[in-house]
Amino acid sequence: MLGAKPRVHLLILPCASQQVSAMADRGASNHSETTDFILIGFRVRPEIHILLFMLFLLIYSMILLGNVGMMAIIKTDSQLNTPIKSISFAGCVAQFFLFALFIVTEGFLLAAMAYDRFIAICNPLLYSVQMSTRLCTQLVAGSYFCGCISSVLQTSMTFTLSFCASRAVDHFYCDTRPLRRLSCSDLFIHRMISFSLSSVIILPTIIVIIVSYMYIVSTVLKIRSTEGRKKAFSTCSSHLGVVSVLYGAVFFMYLTPDRFPELSKVASLCYSLVTPMLNPLIYSLRNKDVKEAIKKLLEKKNTIL
User: Fold this and answer.
1) What pLDDT digit, counting tens, does each position of 35-57 carry?
2) Considering just the CA atoms, what is the radius of gyration of the chain in Å?
3) Which residues cross the membrane (predicted)?
4) Quick one: average pLDDT of 54-64?
5) Which of 139, 210, 228, 291 could form a disulfide with 223 if both were Cys (CB 3.0 to 4.6 A apart)?
């Protein structure tokens, strides 16, 4: 569809370490253009490959049959063609409370992590003293406490409004802006309180993050060795990635005009799905100790097999 591409042939060759090493030797002397690849697959005994093939074939067959079956059922039953699901008032309150709790808590936790990196890079010799277990516990508890207080205020404020316009919330979960569209109450005071509360939450966390990284950058630039600078920036890159995704999605979600509700949904989806998906990849797989642990675990399984 995007234009003609060279055809690439894939050959699955399990447990062929000798063939691969021989090809590597030939490839070192022959620099011709690569036209195909060899997929090694799992490094297990040959007789296990049949079992793995049957297992994966069964799984993929179940996936295809399940999805095709659901599509056929939805197509034949007109009642299933409407993507609307109802939620009780109490369920909407609980959903709103939990969403507000975790998003505010994550903001304070990211600020605490920025301070942790500031201590680790700017005062490494005093890190174990300043970032004690007691302080870490207090920072985590304080983040959840602030998130809980904020969530209680936002929830009580939102659900004391009178909802008389419609029952249909133009969103995929209960959030402030789509719920306000259903209200027939005077929203001026509600908007002012929401803006003030958001400012009290967002501004301190952003200030802590920005100031911490200003000191971090200043300290890193004083490091003479390139390797030392690279290591310091690598320590902060994962945290900065999560901060960018979270605050970018939040700002986009709440600063999008009300006449573009679909854009707000996209930003909400980014926060609710993309950020949790990236967290283990960014925090864990970029950590050298975690990589070594995974490597040892895989080597141990290969030895057993």
Assistant:
1) 554 555 556 677 777 787 788 78
2) 27
3) 48-74, 86-115, 201-221, 233-254, 266-285
4) 82
5) 228
For residue 214 the two structure tokens come to 């200003």
DSSP 238-258: HHHHHHHHHHHHHHHHHHS-T
Of 210, 265, 239, which is closest to residue 106 (Cα–Cα)?
A: 239
Using a cut of 0.90, tell me whether the model's pTM lies above it: no
Task: Quick: pLDDT tens for 87-128.
Answer: 888 888 898 999 899 989 989 999 999 999 899 888 888 888
Measured distance CA(247)–CA(271) in Å, rounded: 9
Distance CA 152, CA 25 (A): 66
Compute the residue count for the chain.
305
